[in-house]
User: Fold this.
Amino acid sequence: MTGGGNIVARRPFPAAAKEKLADAQLRANLRRATHTIRDKRLRVVAEVPDWEALRVAGAAIKDDVLSRLPELLEQFEAAATAAGAVVHWARDAAGAAALVTDLVRATGATEVVKVKSMATQEIGLNEELEAAGIAAVETDLAELIVQLAGDTPSHILVPAIHYNRSQIRDIFARNGLTALTDDPPALAEAARRHLRAKFLSAKVAISGANFAVAESGTLAVVESEGNGRMCLTLPETLISVVGIEKLVPTFRDLEVFLQLLPRSSTGERMNPYTSLWTGVTPGDGPQTVHVVLVDNGRTDTLADDVGRQALRCIRCSACLNVCPVYERVGGHAYGSVYPGPIGAILSPQMSGEGANHTLPYASTLCGACYDACPVRINIPEVLVHLRQTGPHPAAERAAMRALSWTMRSRRRYAAALRAARRGAAPLRWVTGGTVRRLPWPMSAWTAARDAPLPPKQTFREWWARERS
Amino acid sequence: MKIALFVTCVNDLVFPDTGKAVVRVLERLGHTVEFPAGQSCCGQMHANSGYRAEALPLARNFVETFDPYDAVVAPSGSCVAMVRDSYPRLVPGSASVAGRTYELSELLVDVLGVTDVGAAFPHRVTYHPTCHGLRMLRLGDRPRALLRAVRGLELIDLPGAEECCGFGGTFAMKNAGVSGAMLADKCDAIVDTGAEYVAAVDNSCLAHIGGGLSRHDAGAKPIHYAGILAAS
Amino acid sequence: MVPREYEVARAPDDLVEMLVDRLVDYKATVRRCSVEGLGGVLAEVLAGTERIVAPSGVPEGWLSAYQGEVLRDEPRPLAVADLDAPGVAVVTGCAVAVAETGTLILDAGPDQGRRALTLVPDHHICVVHSGQIVGGVPQALRRLADPTRPLTLVSGPSATSDIELNRVEGVHGPRRLDVVIVDR
Assistant:
């Protein structure tokens, strides 16, 4: 709970969600995009006969990593160092951002190109670089859109999911990028022209990593556009910011994740490009390679034996895409770079700050996320687990206690049922079977729907009369 | 076989007809049903809202009350999911009775081997698979198979059926706005089918859906599928 | 212990056919030929291309019928500007290909060269020998001689799904990918 950076919700989820619900364009964009990706994911998952076995293996590999993380991290450090990389450690977001900024400053560069990376968003790196007079150029198309719009990402995989094509063309136009039409190919072409010179001249690149192989010190970046390859190949210096849970023990383990990740995230059999590199290769790619390993609340999360499964996450976004709550409100409502179901269990475990305690309630516990998760994170289980720690509103706590006290005694319970049935009698007489408005706290119910009223006889009264 | 009915607290007070329907269906098939009077609530609302300590005595009471029976049947997917999924971790020694606790369609199809319960219901019905029945109990086609065997019933597919209706227990109050948005989409899908009734295995979800339909004076009415299976 | 009940050796009926199907699905262009026919097919694919880059391990025989200029990366490595010049294509082999996912794996072997060669030019022609094709990802990764060499897994031309989650081909990597499968 001691992590910081951009994983802290500043407003309670219900308030932030209410505001987003009012944005009809946003809801239409999200609905269209999430439904498109859902169908694609289902199609490509269905064609893999051993999908469930892959999920089980993926979960087990990650659990193994979490059970011996310190040992594997040291193994990674030794292997990467032997291969020519410089490994750094950062306890929290601020420390990591300062460390990376110092590394960039030491190169003398005033502009860096960036591969899309959740870890750098998490630690607030762009803000820190900007404060140091270093321009960070996001090169992933969606990240570029969000950066040009002066906005923040709203989805792990597709940060600009909340914009449609014509909104994107407007954002480009405001920033001097011309696209002939709002067709996605024309927009992609505009981004290519804008970024080409930057790729070819950049001295420093910053990336994250999807996987870090402990035995060899290898890092992997999974991407689509080739912006990742540009950043990982052409500059002289490469700095990769990696959460400590990104480890897999062996190269062989990638055979599981390189099947699970693309099908779960973009709904493709394989993403266009995956790059793997191990330290420095003479004559090929960056000759100065840094790896910054970041904790930022992960060790705290590891200490909770129910909650730690959240650290299996490989950031595929499948849970966001199937979540009915995410679909209605989008990522910004969660107030963290990790939105949706996974964010609702990850953010509050990594950081206890702000309104993060409201996030575990941002779910109906419908379970669609658990079914979609390629590493079988039982998100509903963790949500319920995190709800136990509160804080709980005083009135709710009193009501829950009273209800439990009443219901645990047969006599008290039967009396309470009778009382409730009698209490509803006058209402029933006035309104028939349903009510349109009830006083607080039931007013939250009748705001959107009518409420049914108890009939004249409870079931147990009927049973006592008819059957015994 | 000694079958006990766990009617659930919501049904006991608000939807007693559903309990009566279960009794009628099972008796029509020649079984005797008992109603242990010591029962109250499974504790799901408490546990899922963050009050596991308050849920614990209720769970213990359930285990004590129902342990003597061969089978426990409940007309609620979510209450059965609570018993089967959470009790073994919550109450030591509860795994056995948890394993003998069935949602109605499981008891009928799997334990009693029946899909035609001899019902007649000459209406157009669409079916909403509630989340806990669908994804925790994996009820699959069982409820629909039972409905298809009902004489006169026309079962209409519900587009987007597997999407949550937005109820989610206290979610409906804590995040009323999002819940309402999900409800509106579910109601639209139901109305578009032209069905007279929307059936489900959970009265709590149905109260939410029915409240939405009634608020917008939509023609479709909510009905617990036990009520359909009891009709003749 | 990690349960590994998943399939390690995937064996589709026809590896080549499946690879072709997947590549075409990614909007790559695929041609098939015999060992003898390769030079002619490459010349056809490269018709109209004035200049190509070929790593040192690409045999002269592949390019025997090609009329344009061939740039080699050694003894002096080519400048990025040479690679980025308009109309430049790159011809390489690959280490292994995955039928099920339509993936070509480059491991910086002599017929593939350093990573920039297959990245900066806008047109990549990759030659795959049918014996290099395996069924699934596990088989492919296990075939790599040294996984610590720089690896690039290529599945179709560069693409993005960032706008409304629809896939669009052609962003920063080579926008045109031609695959020539050589049957043995």
